[in-house]
Structure prediction request, 432 residues.
Amino acid sequence: MVDLIRKKRDGQKLSKEEIDFFINGYVKGEIPDYQVSALMMAIFFKGMDDEETGQLTQAMLHSGEVLDLSAIKGFKVDKHSTGGVGDKTSLVLAPMVASLGVPVAKMSGRGLGHTGGTIDKLESFPGFSTAITNEQFIHNVNTVGISIMGQTKDLAPADKLLYALRDVTATVDNMSLIASSIMSKKLAAGADGIVLDVKSGSGAFMKNDKDAFELAEKMVAIGKHAGVKTMAVVSDMDQPLGRAVGNAMEVKEAIDTLNGKGPEDLRELCLTLGSHMVTFAGKASSTEEARKMLEENLSNNKALDKLADFIGAQGGKREDVYDPSNLPKASKTLEFTADKDCYVSSIMSEEVGISSLLLGGGRRSKEDIIDLSVGIYLSKKVGEKCSKGETVATLYGNDDAKLSDALERLKGAYTFSDQEVSKNRLIKGIVE
Prediction:
């Protein structure tokens, strides 16, 4: 291990055998944290080329269970988002794509910090559970066309160990380490095709477009190296996606979108990602054709019906999809109003996410219990005009002190201008 640390410290390339040696030794407990920390720091400063990054991903991927989804009929697609505020894309995208006969087999996580998790949002449906066996997961995809389950502890265990170590040694922000962490879990989940939504902006892990594109290119290269169809969409996270931030509120907005009434940016992102998923699976000959098919299933309620089937198959009630009044609701509201005529010039996504966290809608640590009913509705987004006294955003909560703290934080997230402001470009680019 000392030889590997020295080699990488001096900027040399690690071989496949050397990478396998350190990953296997670390997972078995034969290599101590302090040596792996030293190697992570050497990688942080000296970097890894695409071949090394691919080999690291493969070693992490094979450090534990790799899901065998060969029993699922058809071309299985998965989607991954690098995380953001108000990002309820999977709730719209998965049923939309599955409604066209493309099997969606997805593993999702819970939220931590200012970003929400798909599983928390889905648990807004009373009775719904992602704690299902691999057999149930496969059965549901074959019968319903879609299933989402929680990540198992046996999937890419090396990634869990390495991430915990990187988190406390300031070595998280390295492209190769980020890309291999994400892709080892995605590849272990067994899909035939992966569509990535790489966020760029104030509420994202990647704060600028240059870094977002670099990460997207690395992950697509890893997918290609592993023989899995992979592409990425780089999308805007300089303001929250959609208008609702908070678990049950985001579910309602997703249902609105499946009803053809949701916010334009959420609909557009889902159609862009979905058209690539459908084309990957060979259900359409072009993304333009796939998009038309998806739009049709948004207007004829087939996508909404597919969400109801999915919720029903995993313990929830189908009728809650058609009448979301059973979803958790907060007891109090507080409004943020404009104190003059103006335009919204920017919204710091991360600050909106922290405001929702202050209401109880997120976790500071993994043990925290989320209040699924709380959240924020953004009546005004970047480029939109506000008249004096008009509502800019509404906070939903169950505790006056938390509402007051969250309002102060939310006010700091917004900046206003007397002049008209151009709106953000949602899709920054495609990496294939």
